[in-house]
Amino acid sequence: MNGVQLTNHLTAQFRASDISRYEARITEDGGFRDYLYAMSLKRLKRKCERYAKRERKAIEYVTTLKEES
């Protein structure tokens, strides 16, 4: 299993599935978070990048809410 650091806390581990697709196991600080699936490794990496981007946006949003209050 290959691993890629998505954010400070998120990591994606890639592997080939038994049914001719690729899967990524997303973990947060070592704990399970989500699975992503795709038919090609290139598409799976893009999905992981989008997942990390959404996570970064959510963290920024929460930070701005805390600063406002």
Major beta sheet, strand line-up = 1-2-3-4
User: On the 0-100 scale, what is the average pLDDT?
Assistant: 91
What structural category do the secondary elements indicate?
A: alpha+beta
> Which range best describes the helical content: under 10%, 10-25%, 25-40%, 40-55%, 55-70% or over 70%?
40-55%
List the secondary-structure elements in sequence, H or E.
Answer: EEEEH
Structure characteristics:
single chain, 69 residues, alpha+beta, 4-stranded antiparallel β-sheet, 1 helix
Polypeptide structure, described:
By secondary structure, the chain is α+β, with helices and mostly antiparallel strands. The protein has one domain (2-68). The protein is built from one helix and four strands. It has a four-stranded antiparallel sheet, covered by helices on one side. Strand 2 and strand 3 form a beta hairpin. The model has no long low-confidence stretch (mean pLDDT 91).
Describe, in short, the structure shown:
The chain is α+β, with helices and mostly antiparallel strands and 69 residues long. The protein contains one helix and four strands, in the order E-E-E-E-H. A four-stranded antiparallel beta sheet has the order 1-2-3-4, covered by helices on one side.
Task: Map the helices and strands.
Elements: E1 2-5, E2 10-16, E3 22-28, E4 31-38, H1 41-68
Antiparallel strand pairs: 1-2, 2-3, 3-4
